[in-house]
Amino acid sequence: MLAVLAALLLGGLLIAATDETVRESASYFFARPGDTLTAMWDAASSAYIAMFHGAVYNPDGSGLAGKLYPLTETLTVATPLILAGLGVALAFRTGLFNIGAQGQILIGATLAGYVGFAWQLPVGLHLLVVVVAGALGGAIWGGVVGLIKARTGAHEVILTIMLNYIAINLVSWLLTLSTFQREGSSNPISPPIAETAMFPKLLGDGFRLHWGFVVAIAATVAVAWLLNRSTIGFELRAVGANPRAARTAGISVTKGFVVVMLIAGMLAGLAGTAQIAGTEHSLTVGIAASFGFDAITVALLGRSKPWGTFFAGILYGAFRAGGVTMQTSTGTNIDIVLVVQSLIVLFVALPPLLKLKSRRKEVAA
Amino acid sequence: MSTTTSAPESSNAPQEELSTAAANRTVGVRTFRPAIGLAILALVALILFALNAASGSVEFRLSDSGDAIQLPNLSVPITAYGWVVTVALAALAAFAAVRARSLPRWALILAGFFFVTGFLVWIVGTAQTPSISVTALLAGSVALATPLIFGSLGGLLCERSGVVNIAIEAQLLFGAFSAAVASTVANNVWVGLLAAVIGSMMVSLVLAIFSIKYRVNQVIVGVVLNVLVSGLTGFIFATVLQPNAADFNSPARLPHITIPVLSEIPVIGPVFFDQSIIGYIMYVTVAVVWYALYRTRWGLRTRAVGEHPKAADTLGVSVNALRVRNVLMGGAVAGLGGAFYTLVSVSAFTRDMTSGAGYIALAALIFGRWNPVGALLASLLFGFASNLESILSFLGTSVPSQFLAMLPYIVTILAVAGLVGASRGPAASGEPYVKE
Amino acid sequence: MKLELRDITKKFGGFTANQNVNLTVEPHQIHCLLGENGAGKSTLMNVLYGLYEPTSGSIEIDGKPVTFSGPGDAMAAGIGMVHQHFMLVPVFTVAENVALGNEATKGVGLDLNTTRRKIREISDQYGFQVDPDAIVEDLPVGVQQRVEIIKALVREAEVLILDEPTAVLTPKETDELLNIMRQLRDDGTSIVFISHKLREVKAVSDVITVIRRGKVEGQVGPGTSTDQLAALMVGRDVSLTVDKEPAHAIGSALEVEDLTVVGANGVVLVDNVSFSVAPGEILAVAGVQGNGQTELTEALVGLADHVTGSIKLEGQELAGRGVREVLSAGVGFVPEDRSTEGLVGPFSVSENLVLDRYKDREFASGPSLKLGAMRENAQQAVDSYDIRAGSVDAPVSTLSGGNQQKVVIARELSRPLKLFVASQPTRGVDVGSIEFIHKRIVAERDKGVPVIIVSTELDEVYALADRIAVFFHGKLMGIVPPDTPRETLGRMMAGETAEEVLPPAPGTTAKTITNTRGRTRHERHDHLSGIESGLSTLTGRTESG
Fold first, then answer.
1. Domain count along chain C
2. Does the global pTM surpass 0.90?
3. How far is C448 from chain B (nearest CA, A)?
4. C269: domain range?
């Protein structure tokens, strides 16, 4: 919490420092310092208030539904973050750095998207097949990493980074093919997926929140069970905590790498599915946005625990959803969200801050 | 009988690996990885370069019309050369299979030469006009490789002393950003260059503080720094630089130096002796880093700290201080690469303008086996690949440009998978050093 | 140079490693620091070398107090140290290793030629035969140790600390080292020799300081009897007695034939080894650390790569199978190093107790773990093995070494076994736990299980063995009866075969020992007399040589 506040504070300073009014008033700072400070406060607070309005509660919304619309937006954005974050967290627990969620999301979305727009299947079944395809796509892209690492000992950080770029190039090439383009167009965007392939809206057509969020909750429950209460999770955690002891106890470390990267990729692939079947409906190169990299920070903030990742995903979802509102209403660039997010992760890891926290606890006790 | 409670010394792991060395009988260890790697290359050569070659031949223009010295064009028959490459690679694969050990350097260089040239002939052969200027191809490669070389050298300085640097991307980007802003505000390009160095060192400082002082995982810090710098520069770019481009984002350009006489030499002249000053700094940096790493006291200590920090510590080398210094120096070097973007190649800063070059630099560092010269060659290869990509899009080839763009990444995966020879990094890389 | 430690106390958290230690090292002396593993010798020397900061107390050189903030200061003051685990950069050459931290330079460049010259000088002076341009990782251990000594001598060390230098050496290499030490002393270097091996200490020391549980127990001369030294070292009369009935071993349960293990670098770690173990028999494997014993156990349980030959357990072939298959075939395995191989530190006691059994029907139904059953199992093990843990849910890393080892033993002995393999079962374990663990192992034998114990501690070998197998450079030197004298075992550990060492006794050859002897009861005093006899021959040999 302290880390979040500190990051928001620094972000606020940055917003204030780059604000036009502030810079104008700063030119006569020594004459009237109050003006500068007021302008700084205005700039930062209005940005954050806009962010809050966009992420949680909008007082100008019509009716309760309208007022709470931002909250549903937050959950919508959080969905892929949670899913991909779980993949990263699970790999972390097995001792692997899965920097490759980006590529896994992309390939998952591609496969899900292809099945979504190219196949005609009955209602229900189509969505199911789309979800499976998305999970499969991610699992392939993640599993390759596990396989190469298990076979050759290559470092997964390098492999995942390289596979991210290969995925981007692969998808942008696919989007030059007529199969993946809309009829009569040569733009790099796929046809929209069939209605039957979309996640139904959770709260009616007025909201973007879709059933993908339920998938994210289910995935969190599943990962929590997998890690803490299943034999596979036992193996994965043992491999992550002490691979030599795991091997001595008859647990195959290399198999663990493959299994965890398959599951991690699958989760990221589901994030890709949530993007294409839930919100975007058409495949583009940018469909993964920066979710794959945000997922790393989400997993880190969630301390690689399933529910921790879930709530970290919602927090970052709020930043992102609020950031959009902030950009449109106060003109503060949405990149500030990236700054705040990464600062949070840095501060969470910063020992002096942890010390401060424990000292406060001591005082309280 | 050994007894009593467990004190710190009882938990030390025995060093059974050390103690068996050389005393026992030894037998040859057989590895077929190089053979498999070469066989795959030979197969690719067979399918693409030999069986799917265009008819006719490819023209390599060794001099352009304006050059003082005119050389005749080199004409290579496409299909025939494809077969030559296939046979050569197959022979090397057979050699590797018979040897069943890792290959000597000359064999790897030979394999690389055949595959790259075979690829070049084949792919230019698919173009509508199969004619290409060697000078333009190489000069462009060097230009595109310049930031990669600085980036990978910066990474090398960190990694050889045991700090993994995933944040090369952040260093390049922040270097480019600082150079653009400082050179515009001060209206002096040298200030810009200095600012790039300092800006990139600031990124290094954060990396050093978190990963060395507070022992936060180095990969995590690197990844987060990349996001942070991308967000920070993107934000300031959108809110300050873009609306006030004249005040903040119109950097001056670094001077371009053409060395008389030498630059007149065909091919080599324009490639090496007709560059921006950063290009010359680059060659000097590679040489200095190589010399310093292998021939100076600092280099010996750096390598020791990267391999076995505790041994260095017991000899009075201050491990963490050395690491901090090296990480900062690495930042300075990477900063020069960042400056290349805004002071040489593009005239202004744009959002995320390094577009992943830091990651390719990291790949080059690994592909170059943590050696300055290796990193230079790997960066040149990657620069060559991306330059070829843009040249071919002019020539109109049937091969999608995306596949060319993928090439460095695929090559790197093959490298880390050990298919092109073992790639052993510094042993203590990524491990924070804790003094008990 | 006279070196004094005054009232040194060093604490690690709540654990006191050294308490009010006083020590004076006079010039021209080999001063031995004698104490058992874990007595606090290495900690004390690390304090002296500037690696640890003392909690209280002071260091004086020639009567003047000094403070060392790091090894650099200690070296500048003339103190050199050869660490138990060598501090050499494996990929560097000898010259680079020696130069590191003390580099000669020519302008900005490194001047390795000066270093090479110095190495040759020292090497010639003491007959080291070290090539300055050899890569360290290619050198045998004995030579690596000389490189360490050269490192200290190049820095003109006046006091040289040798921390357990003989742990990785063969008896012959040990003798050579002792000679080097004498030579160095005669040339004016004071030596602090840290060891827990009585015979070496007596052979070379001028003064002996005995340390026990972090405190100085006394200072004596080299003439002190071995009995007295041992008593000082151990403190009370610990009888490491294991009451054993004679083994009821008939036939053979485990048949190992032509077993060979090759390491990744082509070194043959286990070289064409054949032996068999009968049900209800303990075969103890002796040898200097690193002669293939570890790899033998790893090969037995399927952990080693590049294994050829055959391992048959009750007729069932185990070679080439994975670890899990071997374990579920009824093999219990206690690995050499519990913290890196035996336990998962952050895992709870109850999780560690099922580390290789979590898939059993007892603890899992399908893919789901039975957490309740795991906890019950843990509670039982904690009770019957007297494991002192705050709770069965506490991370195992919070337990003491002895209790951690009991967790491993409890896990492996809690299921029906057909073979029990334990490597260094009591390393770094307190006396009480050692007795307990030994009893459990003997009990397992008495159930009719064939047992293989690997130990570098001869006392443990004598305490448990029904037969003793000796390894040297990966080869089996022979299998001898448990009453074989220490000296004989020592010669086998240095590379002589059983046939060469043992006088041909009528009716018995070295490799066909029957298990028909009477009740074996080993007392510490038997061993000590064994040491004495070994010692006299040893000193005799070294003095004449």
1. 3
2. no
3. 27
4. 254-330+416-522
